Batch of 2 targets.
Target 1
Amino acid sequence: MLIRIAKASDPASSEITPRSVYLDRRTFMAGTAGFATLTLGGCKPKAATSSGPGTNAKLADVKEGYRKLGSADTLTTYDAVTSYNNFYEFGTDKEDPAKEAHRLKPRPWTVKVDGLCNKPGTIDFDDLIKPHALEERIFRLRCVEGWSMVIPWVGFSLGDLLKGFEPQGSAKFVQFETLVRPAEMIGQKDAFSLKWPYVEGLRMDEAMNPLATVAVGLYGEVLPNQNGAPIRVVLPWKYGFKSAKSIVRISFVEKQPENTWKVMQSREYGFYSNVNPSVDHPRWSQKTERRIGDFRRRDTLMFNGYEEEVASLYAGMDLKKNF
Ligand code: MTE
């Protein structure tokens, strides 16, 4: 993702090139006239050199969880998963989070739970996850920019977490809010970046779907800062920007909440943001994707290949209008 000046005449692009991305950002920084817009763009990852885990603490007692993969799916290397990231709080380039996220202090960490539930409060991270058995859940992650990965997350069901707060019947949506701490998140000092805090939301039935995941680790280890330490959500059937990182607040609400990318550019990014190869981004096709580590593009699958698990959530909805 990056900030660029979009011109009305911009061609829809099916391939996002690093050079144009770089030039676009420079154009924006130079303050060239035009209307500013935030958009998602891409650049090539560093060549991954190893596939093993890193040096973070190992997570104990991790059971085998969801792992339905296609024959063409192989795990993306640990190096690529942790060095090619979107986390604007640390900068807009893919390499920035790995370079800058060491400043983030993921402990002590509390999550505020509020809104339409019977058990609101401010809960310490350890108490929040203690009641939940950890599982390894392997999911494809498809970014709206047109790249994808396969990541072995460690976590548990988001629905189980939310049920513990006893949401009320009037709670139709849940909103997630990310940390604001510019001293540790240097991207938050960038006046031309996103509005902070980064917020995201789901309809309650989406949040209760068994695939909706709270992640606290990957590759058997504690979640690296650049991947959203200490706690994030993972929603494998949606474009990656729905999966908010470093969550500090969970709110149960009646009305559809705001989500950052839709606020920044509502013509280009929606609330539902389900992976859908037949709904193009206004400036590029979503029909194919580049799996990080692969050379050739591959077809993008409806709901990122999780149609069987989630399609019923959207029965009767026009997914072209409700993107
Ligand atoms: N969460 C926050 N707080 N800030 C962000 O910039 N980027 C999103 C999502 N969650 C983002 C975020 C986007 S666009 C993607 S594709 C995924 O995180 C990337 O997750 P990863 O870096 O762990 O692969």
Target 2
Amino acid sequence: MKTLATDFGIDEALESLGIKAINEGTSTGSNNFSNGEIIESYSPVDGQLIGKVKTTTKEDYEQVMDAATSAFKTWRTMPAPQRGEIVRQFGDKLREKKEALGKLVSYEMGKSYQEGLGEVQEMIDICDFAVGLSRQLHGLTMHSERPGHRMYEQYHPLGVVGIISAFNFPVAVWSWNTALAWICGDVCVWKPSEKTPICGVACQNIAAEVFAENNLPEGISCLINGDYRVGEFMTKDTRIPLISATGSTRMGKIVAKEVAGRLGKSLLELGGNNAIIVTPDADIKMTVIGAVFGAVGTAGQRCTSTRRLIIHESVYDKVKNAVVDAYEQLRIGNPLDENNHVGPLIDTDAVKMYNQALEKVVEEGGHMVVEGAVLSGEDYESGCYVKPAIAEAKPDFKIVQHETFAPVLYLLKYSGDVENAIAIQNNVAQGLSSAIMTNNLREAERFLSHAGSDCGIANVNIGTSGAEIGGAFGGEKETGGGRESGSDAWKIYMRRQTNTINYTTELPLAQGIKFDL
Ligand code: UN1
């Protein structure tokens, strides 16, 4: 029997998130500016229309920027711990709305409800992290070379931060940026993916409620909607000192060039081509869990998804058979139904790319060990459901070198030492996440050493995806070099100032220079 979204409480969720039939791009409150054309958001789950949003025109954008720059003047004067208190309240609201927002994420993006809840949990976690951090935005003090002088550094808010986010984490990635930017004293203008605009409106509504309850201007958080042309308003705008962009490497290169051209800063979190190395000393059971969740979680649409398994020849057949067995157990279907493991891809364009990848790997000489398929039938009417596939391939195949945002896993064989596996792992353009499965300390440490993985994330005995917010998140090479969320990622949202204070009646110059008048 066909399962309808209404059976899973979607209407109630939309209502509790304040979603209307047509949503202004900038939501409730003072920032009701959108006048552009309409984007309709259809669910990949059942093909139904979820809602409509109005896009942001250039004139609307100017009004948004006025609201943001004026809100910045208020927001930056508040002590950081007080801003932290606002973020604490925002985190509490997210706790209240966790089920509703998790459901909307699942319905609009297609990831499983469990993963939708997990994504909202990441938002809550980053708020907690940011609240603590709001009391620790510290600089260093250093000794001056001159007597009677004090030297230290301090961090000030940057101003308006532009956030461009992708469909696959339609709410969490925004919050990683915004929670930190807010405690740092910045205000944010967010352009969510045009594939998941209703998630953007829901987040904006939650933030707007908190600002209204505290008599703060909603301009602290602004939402703009549309495609890359709306993104360009921000990348070209000299009033925006930092652009944080998450998405494809192709998009990141365009953003990087534009922002660098005006000497702005960009924080880029782009494509990955993540591998798990499986050595002769790997625990096979753990390997299978890590690899299968990494490859099929979010239907292979995480930037951290596992795309390559680099398996030692001595355990190759064993690992292959265990992973193939696990794939046979996978249930594909409505992601709101917790019995299913894998939901749909985001849209039919993604299905095309999945099909192309399968064709290409065979063309290049690969061999399918789990055949792919586009599913049809009344439960798959949206046309976005595909079967996770596995192909045996060679590391240098063009398609293996390329990030396909779909559940296609490549099995690659290595022989000899772990160095050979590391060389294969590093020999791609991207550098986001990586993992090794081994109980051998030497192999693990070699993988983590300076000559080991070249990625921003390198894990031992866990998979490539599912990073915690407490660590800095991001990667090297074509992943763009940015770091978001934990550790000291907050520093990019602030400007650093070095201060030297002379408390004597003399004016000695540094470097021993004499300038007597
Ligand atoms: C992304 O896919 O853009 O590490 C982010 C993970 C998640 C975040 C992924 N915490 O898989």
